[in-house]
Amino acid sequence: MQPRLRPPRPPSPLLPPQAAFGGVPVITWRRLVEADFPLLRTWLLQPHVHRWWNHETSPEAVDRDFGPVARGEEPSEDLLVLEDGTPVGLVQRSRYGDYPEYLAELAPVLPVSPEAVSVDYLVGDLARCGHGLGPRIIAAVVAATWADYPAAPAVVVPVNAANRNSWRALEKAGFTRVAEGELEPDNPVDDRAHVVYRIDRPAP
Q1: CA 23, chain centre distance (Å)
Q2: Which of 24, 114, 155, 203 is at a distance of 20 to 30 A from 100, taking alpha carbons?
Q3: The Cα angle at residue 46 between residues 124 and 80, in degrees rounded to 5
Q4: Chain segment 159-175, per-residue pLDDT in tens
Q5: Orientation of helix 164-172 relative to helix 133-148, angle to 10°
Q6: Contacts of 152 (CB under 8 A, 6+ apart)
Q7: Selection from 85, 80, 78 nearest residue 26 by Cα
Q8: Among 172, 166, 82, 92, which residue's Cα sits nearest to residue 135?
Q9: How many CB atoms are located within 10 Å of the residue 148 CB?
Q10: Among the listed residues 79, 112, 108, 100, the one whose alpha carbon sits nearest the alpha carbon of residue 200
């Protein structure tokens, strides 16, 4: 499941290069801003994205769904991901404790700490899919999460069981499947079967 978890954190400059899986090409990211919405809309219209990101795609709907985070009105981060400086995707990152209703929904499947973090992710261009970009993005963002969220014991990601590409990307980024169960799907055409993946904070 992609929970659309949205910490207003002060907008940060482009983060230092995160070099996962050998360091080339370079993955960086910055906060999504309203000027990025036309690009985001083109991604949300792509069939491979739209299948799992069940968003309306009018300009008004994109502003409704992503504007509050971009303006710092909701407790989450939408991160525009770049590969060698070119925008290639989006990561949403947030604390479970900021969304108690979702924490409660997940609890029967897998109890998690309110300090745990969730991520959701997309690669906007289909031509870039299938070449390891998704796992590199996930691994880079997770590596930064331990410093960005010092109280987080783990990153926990529920995924619809039918979304094999998504949970395989998590496995390639080092996540382990820790639970299976029923959760509300993002897209009503899907059933409630979900798998839950977790990666723990590295030992000091």
Answers
A1: 21
A2: 203
A3: 25
A4: 999 999 999 999 999 99
A5: 60
A6: 95, 113, 115, 116, 117, 145, 146, 201
A7: 85
A8: 172
A9: 16
A10: 112
Q: At residue 1, does pLDDT exceed 70?
A: no
Amino acid at 22: G
At 66 the three-state DSSP class reads: helix
- For residue range 134-147, list pLDDT tens digits in order: 999 999 999 999 99
DSSP one-letter string for 158-189: EEETT-HHHHHHHHHTT-EEEEEEE---SSTT
Q: Which residues partner with 18 through β-bridges?
A: 27
C-alpha–C-alpha distance, residues 12 and 28, integer Å: 12
Tokens representing 168 are: 């395989």
Across-strand partners of 119? 93
Radius of gyration of the chain (CA): 16
Residue 140, classed as helix, strand or coil, is helix
Residue with the bigger pLDDT between 135 and 20: it is 135
Closest by Cα among 167, 172, 152 to 2? 167
What tokens appear for 83 in the block? 């590969």
Amino acid letter, residue 129: C
Task: Tell me 127's DSSP state.
Answer: G
